[in-house]
Design brief:
Layout lengths: L1 H14 L1 H20 L4 H16 L40 E5 L11 E5 H7 L4 H13 L14
Helix pairs in contact: 2-3
């Protein structure tokens, strides 16, 4: 059963801490390496996408092959998209690829996803189109609007 399996796993971890630590380091290194390469980024990303879908109770019919076509440039912001990692930086950056659900009420299906930059997906995560228009109007009315640098990060 699932509970018995979990108990055995916990017992093994307690009895073999050095093996467990080595396993975690190996696994985390492998995941980081996968996320650094855009061609294999989808294999690493699909795991968290499926977990989010399961937690939220939404459909998830995509697989890693559906995430292979990462654009070189974000279709929303026009900034370059590249895999994260390097220079001691862990986790996504503004330029990391991110899976956007076009209609949030729908799940992760091939016809409902686009790959955009993490920055663009963060900006549109909770905002409505009207809210974004209002922010744009506010920012353009400011005396000196914040300029962007080529990597997509504000000055």
């Amino acid at each position: 059963s699932r509970a018995a399996n979990r108990t055995n796993t916990l017992r093994w971890r307690q009895n073999h801490p050095e093996k467990f630590t080595a396993y975690c380091e190996r696994t985390n290194t492998n995941r980081r390496e996968l996320r650094r390469d855009l061609e294999t980024w989808g294999r690493a990303a699909i795991v968290s996408i499926r977990q989010r879908a399961r937690r939220s109770g939404i459909e998830c019919t995509i697989n890693a092959a559906d995430l292979r076509c990462v654009p070189a440039v974000c279709p929303v912001l026009g900034i370059p998209i590249f895999a994260c990692g390097g220079g001691g930086k862990h986790g996504p950056t503004h330029n990391s690829p991110s899976v956007d659900r076009i209609e949030n009420a729908k799940g992760y299906t091939v016809d409902n996803i686009k790959i955009i930059s993490n920055r663009a997906n963060t900006l549109k995560r909770d905002a409505t189109a009207d809210e974004l228009r209002r922010v744009l109007a506010y920012m353009t009315a400011l005396p000196e609007a914040t300029e962007e640098v080529p990597d997509g990060n504000p000055k």
